[in-house]
Design a protein that fits this description.
Blueprint (H helix, E strand, L loop, with lengths): L3 E3 L15 E6 L3 E3 L7 E7 L2 E5 L2 E5 L4 E4 L5 E5 L5 E6 L5 H7 L6 E3 L5 H16 L4 H24 L5 H14 L7 H8 L3 H12 L3 H17 L6 H7 L5 H12 L3 H8 L1
Antiparallel strand pairs: 1-2, 2-9, 3-8, 4-7, 4-9, 5-6, 5-8, 7-10
Helix pairs in contact: 2-3, 4-6, 7-8
């Protein structure tokens, strides 16, 4: 396992996201920062286990864990033995604070027990772009830095779900909805797919996707209908019927509610 570190200098470039420092597969020494660090950080536990202490809380870090530290927060972390290996990145950029704020990343975030392999791949891409592309490596890596922050946000969102992996039990229902989108679906039909009661289905679906099944179906029908609107010869009533809505007024109402424009306005703006 190769250990690498880079401290890029982007000069006068004004980038939305960049990194002043990144290190991969580093043997991690104990860190104590009573006043925190002046930049936000993402740290991935590659091998071994560690302990993080910050603001009166102690977190046990398993192999594969990833944690986020906001700027200027006191913290200390160390391995449980001398062979703790981490990868880390410091976050900066013209829009970094705005993005972190929009994702609610104001406090320390610790994610254990999730698949963080994509985080590791993204960090490798960032380092590679900065090393091999001297002309515009900073710009290219900026895209991956945003991707890394988004991945952290998605991992945290998944971890925060009331029944975590329950979302995967509901996923087969999405395929069923797409296959039967033109039909008049009932709650009993949907519950039968998962072999659960309608009440259990509604609760599980809401926990997984933040909305009830028929709100999802309405949104999916509107989404699919957009591809039919590309055919200017197809009447709006026919478009609605293609996605299982046989009341054109109801279709137009839902389209305007979800998209902010009517189907005809959407068609005029896009096709």
């Amino acid at each position: 396992m190769k250990s690498e570190a880079l401290f890029p200098n982007i000069g006068e470039k004004k980038l939305p996201f960049h990194t002043p420092a990144i290190g991969l597969n580093k043997l991690q020494c104990p860190i104590v920062r009573e006043n925190g660090y002046h930049l936000p950080q993402i740290i991935l536990c590659v091998e071994g286990e560690g302990v993080l202490e910050t603001e009166g809380k102690t977190y046990q870090l398993s192999e594969g864990a990833v944690f986020f530290l906001p700027a200027d927060r006191e913290h200390r972390y160390h391995g449980k033995d001398a062979n703790w290996i981490t990868s880390w990145i410091h976050l900066a950029g013209e829009n970094m604070n705005e993005i972190l704020e929009s994702f609610g990343l104001r406090e320390c975030v610790v994610i254990n027990g999730a698949d963080t392999s994509h985080c590791e791949r993204i960090m490798r891409q960032i380092l590679t772009e900065l090393k091999v592309n001297r002309l515009n490596g900073a710009e290219r890596s900026s895209v991956h830095i945003y991707e890394l922050v988004m991945e952290l946000h998605m991992l945290r969102t998944e971890q925060a779900r009331p029944q975590g992996k329950g979302v995967y039990r509901v996923l087969p229902l999405l395929d069923y909805i797409d296959e039967h989108i033109t039909e008049q679906l009932t709650l009993a039909d949907l519950a039968k797919v998962l072999e659960v009661t309608p009440q259990h289905l509604c609760r599980a679906f809401k926990e997984a996707f933040g909305m009830r099944p028929f709100e999802y179906i309405n949104r999916r029908r509107i989404q699919i209908s957009k591809r039919y609107l590309a055919d200017r010869n197809m009447k709006i009533a026919a478009v609605a019927s293609m996605v299982g809505i046989h009341d054109v007024s109801y279709y137009c109402y839902n389209f305007k509610r979800l998209e902010g424009v009517t189907p005809n306005e959407f068609r005029a703006q896009n096709f």
